[in-house]
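Dear U.,

For the methods section draft, I wanted the exact inputs and outputs in one place so we can describe them consistently. I've listed the two proteins in the order they'll appear in the manuscript figures. Please don't edit the token lines directly; just add comments below if something needs changing.

First protein:
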Amino acid sequence: MSNHFSAAYLKFPGDDARLDLTDLYVFPTPGAPGRTMRTTLIIDVNPFTTGLSATAPFLMSPDFHPDAVYRINIDSDGDNQADAAFSAVFTDAEGGRQVGTVSYAIGDDARRMEPAGEVIASAVPAGFDAAAHPVQAGECELFMRVRSDPFFADAEGALHGLDWTGEDSFAGKDVQCIALQVPDDMLGPDPAISVWATVSVRHDGTLVQVDRGGNPFINPDYAKDRCNAGHPADDVATYLQPWSRLLQENGYPAAEATEAAASVLPDVLHYDRDRPAAYPDDRSLTDDVFSARMSFLTHGEVTSDGPSPHDDMLTEFPYLRPPHR
């Protein structure tokens, strides 16, 4: 359930911000020749990378977790199983700087938790560097650094009974960004795909999934950690009835609540290259997905939380502006 502080009770998965998946973005690459030529995929992790207090300095680190696997999963045949996957892992290089390795897997390799398939880039610099540039990796472009968080929402208002403050809780904040620009044929033959991101970390030598998400979800605390460790193929069976009940409590008639819950399950981001680019058929950096989710949850009673898209986006890849600090 992609979200800032996505573990239960506003915590980070594993109590480590580097494992916290904040957002997934998938959209047609601007300026690409044709609607079906190239796609941009971005996952952000480590919310408030440079904005946490000195009482928790390890959470302020601009590093990726060295024991984690950050993955973008692509389902191209509608069975909610990965048919292709991009995986990123990170190690410390000489001089203490961190570097990343990105793998691309298809078929059975794409469904393994461990990175598998073809290594498309290695020793890619990662860290806090405002002057960083993308790296060419064959037909792909990669970027893995701290950047400005593009997400915008009135989180304080959402946490206090939808009493909106009008303030953007994420303005001026930074995240760790993993961005790719890839040829569309790496995503599968069908123009309509489903995408979700996962973060896994090693515990006693075993890789354990601790976060995942396709859309910004707002789950009750009792369901968050279970959902983070789950899989899209199980979402309908696990969450259809609980979500239907939740929507009924928020003003939906019973039959409509079940239909509405089914429309957002499983938790994957849909991307259709044959349809106009607009959420929920993709997600760009300026889509107001928080307002869309608030409207969905409240049966249309709340149409906006107030904040507008950030106006500091770049016109070139990776599109997120340099970090604030």
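Second protein (the one for the lower panel):
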Amino acid sequence: MESKPFVYFLCTGNSCRSQIADGLLHALAGDKYEVKSAGLEAHGLNPRAMKVMSEIGIDISGNTSNVIDPELLSRANYVITLCGHADEHCPVISNRSVVKWHWGFEDPAQAQGMEEEIMAKFREVRDAIRWRIEKFVNEGK
């Protein structure tokens, strides 16, 4: 039995962008990929990220915020960083066949203003990540 390609999404705190990407790839690709996300630190799952995902019918409330696991990193087929900090500080990847990409997105958790303005930023980032994941699923890049 052939194993599924493993996609590891990385961000600074594994609370927003990487969680959104994880949920979207699960939803858009079904069981075509093994998907996990992690951060340089574990900041906990952001409630606003859960809310904007639930708005499009994706439940990430059962996800956990995790620190990068060197074992998972070494067996990943794709390592995708979603913020510049994670891209710059990602641990060395020993797997020479891994495809590493950087898809930089603004951190919606840094948005300021009224609640609706903050939620609008979360939706904007969610939709940008969704577009990028759809491209990955459809084109493999």
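Candidate sentences for the figure legend, describing the second protein: Strands lie at 6-11, 34-39, 78-81, 99-102. The chain has a mean pLDDT of 91.

Thanks,
Y.
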